[in-house]
Specification:
The chain is α/β, with parallel strands linked by helices and about 190 residues long. It folds into two domains: about 140 residues, 3-Layer(aba) Sandwich (Rossmann fold), CATH 3.40.50; about 35 residues. The protein contains six helices and eight strands, in the order αααβαβαββαββββ. The strands form two sheets. The protein has a five-stranded parallel sheet. The protein has a three-stranded antiparallel sheet with strand order 6-7-8, with no helix packed on it. The longest helix has 15 residues. The radius of gyration is 17 Å and the shape is globular.
């Protein structure tokens, strides 16, 4: 079975913008989320976007005044971010999100880990390690915002199949397998023709 990083790069990265509903719609949704939950900086401050992907939150963070470290394991997705940065203060880094701290020169005011990024970590120890790294990287009074899908109640039967997106040419569904300590997600992409 491929690693999460290999799976994203070979399977999901090429369709990620489509999966998110298109770049403009995804950035607009990201801007609404950032506006709803992120403090606006009083001066230029650092924000870190863990699992930045194609910039859905990094671009909105820069739009409200942050200098942004956008970290992701996918070169394909970071290339998309870079192609839409324009003059925004966004630094992209391809690395494991657990290693983000080595790319910060000063403490961050805000660290985001949104979407299902957190659930891609391999085990609880990695999640705990990330939280330790975040606490060490935040300046005093800084903010950590994390979102993730709640998998605490196992889905059964057909509820384990989640339709993600479809159009005339392709269908993307997820199938979830629950065990005592993990959920395995299978992304199923069906293309026409």
């Amino acid at each position: 079975m491929p690693s999460v990083i290999e799976h994203y790069e070979s399977h999901l990265a090429p369709i990620y913008v489509w999966m998110a509903g298109g770049l403009e719609a995804a950035i607009a949704r990201g801007q609404a989320e950032v506006d709803a939950v992120c403090p606006h900086p009083l001066r230029t401050q650092w924000a870190v976007d863990l699992g930045a992907g194609f910039g859905m939150h990094a671009i909105p963070l820069a739009n409200i005044g942050y200098s942004v470290l956008a970290i992701d394991s996918s070169r394909t997705l970071l290339d998309l971010t870079e192609s839409h940065v324009a003059a925004r203060p966004i630094q992209t880094v391809r690395d494991d999100l657990l290693s983000f701290g080595k790319h910060l020169k000063t403490p961050a005011t805000l660290i985001l880990c949104m979407g299902d990024t957190l659930t891609h970590l391999p085990d609880r120890e990695s999640v705990e390690g990330l939280f330790v790294n975040v606490s060490e990287a935040l300046e005093g009074g800084g903010t950590f915002i994390v979102t993730f899908r709640n998998y605490s109640t196992p889905l059964t039967g057909l509820d384990r199949f989640i339709p993600v997106r479809s159009d005339a040419d392709r269908i993307l569904n997820c199938f979830l397998e629950f065990d005592d300590s993990a959920v395995t997600v299978h992304d199923i992409l069906i293309r026409a023709g």
